[in-house]
Write a structure and sequence with these properties.
The protein is of the alpha+beta class. The chain contains 2 helices and 8 strands; from the N terminus they run ββαββαββββ.
Length: about 160
């Protein structure tokens, strides 16, 4: 998929990317790739990741067999993968040969269970960026309702 970057005022935007482009940006693969596509990407600022939650997800076998619920830690991981992809798209070739690693997770809150059939819309916004450290605020929504939120930071290393 060709990624078309559009200039909008001072912002550079990408309308959407598919899972193949996400996999070129971050090393995660099934069953740990938790973002299916991204949209509304403003390079260096914010993006929305989308995860279609299927009953076939391997974690549902044990969490919980009688009432499948997506683990909260995996919702936070989906936020981190969305943010990492945004960082990679922002840095472009300057990112080659590097990885993005979690440093901190703060103020994580889980508001309601995420179940098979839900579509997570994960909105991440950069709070700040200094040297090789990026800090984000993330909120995950299902049907317009916040189901989880957290602040987190990541470091680029290579």
């Amino acid at each position: 998929m060709n990624v078309e970057i559009k200039q909008h005022g001072n912002d550079q935007r990408i309308e959407r990317i598919d899972v193949m482009r996400i996999m070129r940006a971050i090393p995660h693969r099934y069953p740990f790739l938790l973002v299916d596509k991204m949209e509304n990407i403003i390079l260096g600022e914010e993006a929305v990741g989308i995860k279609n939650v299927s009953f076939n997800e391997p974690f549902f076998q044990g969490h919980f067999p009688e009432r499948p619920v997506m683990p909260g830690v995996l919702i936070i991981e989906a936020m981190a993968q969305t943010a990492a992809t945004l960082v990679v798209l922002t840095l472009g070739e300057a990112f080659d040969g590097k990885l993005v690693y979690f440093m901190t997770i703060d103020n994580a809150k889980f508001r309601r269970p995420v179940e098979p059939g839900d579509q997570l819309r994960i909105h991440v916004v950069k709070e700040r960026h200094r040297a090789n450290v990026w800090r984000f605020v993330g909120k995950a929504h299902v049907d317009g309702i916040v189901v989880a939120e957290a602040s987190f930071s990541a470091m680029i290393a290579g």
